[in-house]
Amino acid sequence: MLHRFLSALFLIAATAASISANAQNSPKSVVTTPQVRAELLAHAPQGVVPGQPVWVGLQIAHQPEWHTYWKNSGDSGLPTVLQWTLPPGVTAGDIAWPLPRKIPIGNLANYGYEGTVLLPVPLTISPDFKPSQLASELEVKLHAVWLVCRKECIPEEGDFTLKVPVKSTTAINGAAFDASLAAQPQPLAARSKIEVQGAKLQITVADLPAALRGKTLELFPETPEITAPAVDIRQSWSGPTWTATATLTAMRSQSPAQMPLVLVAEQGGQRQGYRTEADVQGSWPQAVAAPTLSPALEAALQANSAAAQIPAAPSLSWAAALLGALLGGLILNLMPCVFPVLAIKLMGFAQHAGDRRAHRVDGLAYSAGAIASFLALGALMLGLRAAGEQLGWGFQLQSPAVVAGLAVLFTVVGLNLAGLFEFGQFLPSRLATLQARNPALNAFLSGVLAVAVASPCTAPFMGASLGLAVGLPAAQALPIFAVMGLGMALPYLAASLSPGLARLLPRPGAWMATFRQLMAFPMFATVAWLVWVLGQQSGIDGAGSLLVLLVAVAAVLWALGLAGRTRLVVATLSIAALAGAISAVGPNVIKNAPPSNAVVAGERWQPWEPGRVEQTLATGQPVMVDFTAAWCVTCQYNKKTTLSNTSVLADLEAKNVQLLRADWTRRDPAITAALGQLGRNGVPVYVLYKAGSAPQVLSEVLNVDDLRAAIAKL
Known about the structure:
With about 725 residues, this protein is an alpha+beta fold. The chain contains 20 helices and 24 strands. Strands 12, 13, 14, 15, 16, 17, 18 and 19 form an 8-stranded mixed sheet that branches. Strands 1-2-3-9-6 form a 5-stranded antiparallel sheet. Strands 20-22-21-23-24 form a 5-stranded mixed sheet, covered by helices on one side. Helix 6 (about 355-385) packs antiparallel against helix 11 and helix 14 (about 520-560) packs across helix 15. The protein is elongated and about 100 Å long.
């Protein structure tokens, strides 16, 4: 049984690492997520020849109710960013944006695309282009970043590679490109102007085509953060002149001298667009500083310019990430959730008090278990993320089934420590003898167990390292996870190699039986915590059902430890009771109860929602966000201490800080995306936002004085 467990562990690690590596290294022209299907297309009707049209583009097919954004995204969102890698002699132009649609979102409105849209980009082929003599192909590489939204928003990205034949035509995608280019706004020769009148813009466009006159037009300003998209314009016609009044947005941060405008009309069931450059007359009112978004979103905005670069990961060097991983793993030993396993580890040290060789073997085996477990978890997470899952560190405890499984495991271990049964009673004699001859196996599994309960926590220094690791290739990311495991095992590895340690430990004796039974209670305390976590995920029925299953498991273990005929009868009945309990209440344990967004009257902390931070900052009010989870012990400690401190609460009240709590107990792609924008991949994360300033990410372990000092700067 033990050997099968270890084999499965390494198989998971190897398989996930392979999936991750292949997903990141293999060339592809299609990226599929639960929200969109993105494909790189090309259109070269005369081949890749200087002076002839060559088009490439990203086609995005959205799932129902999801959308991406136009060059001006409206009240929220971000335009899609395309970053090309092309051979010498080939340059890419700007996106030829098709006509957008107005997408109402509550009391806001966005400009973007639903259904299927192709974003075409022209390529200029100069005489300097020299295709490979072997392949005679134009290799096009694209890194695309897009924000896809429904009610929640998920930043996504993909790497695409396409090889376009140089000498033959590539007209297979002609219909898609023709349709997209036909949806381009046509340039207007008409004169146009904008007059600033307080909080309004008076727009006048003269000499419009006769086919448009008298029609209701849609207005799409290309310059973002000028008009309020959700406020309808007032428009009228005077012969060939169209006049409209638009409302300035409260978040206006620009005062341009000229504004490109796109006007859209319905003609014969088809949408036809026109583009004009309008000169601005009059004095702009004082602009409001735009609320600062996360560094990742700001970088994506800046990437629209040719000189900007999109950061592939948080600004942390790989060497610094390794150091942070080592320190973070070391600090994990101080987390309360790890104490039960560490107590067992100390008892194992005491058993070998007089045997230096056994100490060394024990420490090395424990370290191997911790490192292998971190590698397995890291590889599994990277592999699932490469397959399109939105996962972060601690993802395993977002599953009620995993929480229930750990509760059963810790109950069994606790009952064993209490003396209710011995594992040797249930193991075949061959395995029991093997375990006795190989005590290092127990030490290895202790390392596995320690990581199982410690991994959901994010210690100081770990957050930035994890945030970097998830954006790296597997070959660079996995060493970060391995060093994290080494950091966690380091105190025991050092102690096992220290010759003086044996003299400090008490000699084995009768006291160890009492100490072993005492260690059962921290295990049961961990079970109580896991039951509470499950209650947050599956509701009170789920927690109650898990308790029923734990009682049934305890009864089976007790019955199997009986002697004689009594064992057969009682064990049969208890096993039948356990099977009945699993059948009757098991589904309640693993279900996800619907999340509750109800706010208790007088509650200081409000539920976090995508876009709520930006909306609050637009009013000038600062914001604090607590990214937390029920299974994160550090989160609960901070919540009951620093975040409940009367001085801290008074400071937050004095600064009128809006308090938002992002609960990651259950899997939530929107929260995962928000953490990724902050360069983090696990909880706890605490962030202070102030309009006009970069978000301030605080330490994972909050200190009252440090938090008050940070609040004072708001």
